[in-house]
Amino acid sequence: MKIVDTSDLMQKIILTKEYDRKKEVFHEELKKLNMEKIASQIIKFNFFDFQIDSNQANLLLNFLESNLFKRELNDAYKLCEIYLNMKVELDLIILPLNQNNIFYNREMKGIVAHTIGKEQIIFYINPNNPKIKSSIQSLFIHEYQHLINNSINNRKSNLMDIIIDEGFSELLVEKTLGEEELGAWANRYSGRYLIQFNKLIWLNRNSKDINLISTILNGSEKDNIPLWLGYSYGYNVVKNYSMKNNNLEFLDLITMDNENIISNYIGDI
Q: Number of structural domains, the chain?
């Protein structure tokens, strides 16, 4: 695992005064990190802190250099290697999280992440949030599973594939750290509560509509979809399947046919 140096990127953003120009610089710097394709997505979801100043940048860099951060990461990496009996080489890219985004800083404890392809994990961190320390390992393991799934499977990236992949990420957290370390999105709803959404998920399982997938995954008050529905549903699906097939290793589970996994959960609707 290599932690990519993003200090130059942050410094150039700080030195750039005009907001629109900051975005251009951001695109230019991400291109150097082979991340240009997702620059617009990062901006759209309001992840990156374009208002970062020198003090905040130094605070983040000092946190990344701390023994606590390095230990948490290395321990999580080792836990995955031991449990899965395999290791994926990866680049970890760490950027400042937008401190003005209330949801990310309150509900996500000041740390969010996602993957790119088979080799990159991106963390966005607000070092001012004291709760980030409790989420480093679980979030890393969650994203690490995505890398493994991306490297093993060639999925269609429809709704069904995405919610099951999210479910397996939380299952790996449970298997390596324990159920108490699950993300708030994983066990937010009981299986009994989720039954009412079986038909919605099944009828849209092959959809590749980005807006629909985002709505079901993240929730929408307008559409009467509860917060983090897709994440919680996915965890319940794979948890159920793994309990019924407890003879299978984790790496075998994630290669199972997703339609079979989800139909096994839903049953006859």
A: 2
Instruction: Let me know how long the chain is.
Output: 269
Say if residue 268's pLDDT is above 60. no
More confident residue, 269 or 8: 8
DSSP string, 149-195: HHHH------HHHHHHHHHHHHHHHHHHH-GGG--TTTSSS-HHHHG
Kindly report the number of other CB atoms within 10 A of residue 74's CB atom. 13
Residue given tokens 């994630």 in the structure block: 254
Residues 165 and 134 in one domain: no
**C-alpha span between 144 and 87 (Å, rounded):** 10
Does 125 lie in the same domain as 233?
no
- Contact between 228 and 218 under an 8 Å Cβ cutoff? The reply is yes
* Percentage of residues in the chain having pLDDT higher than 70: 99
pLDDT at position 269 over 50: no
Average pLDDT score over residue span 137-158: 92
Q: Which domain holds residue 182?
A: 159-266
Domain shared by 169 and 128, yes or no: no
Percent of the chain with pLDDT strictly greater than 90: 83
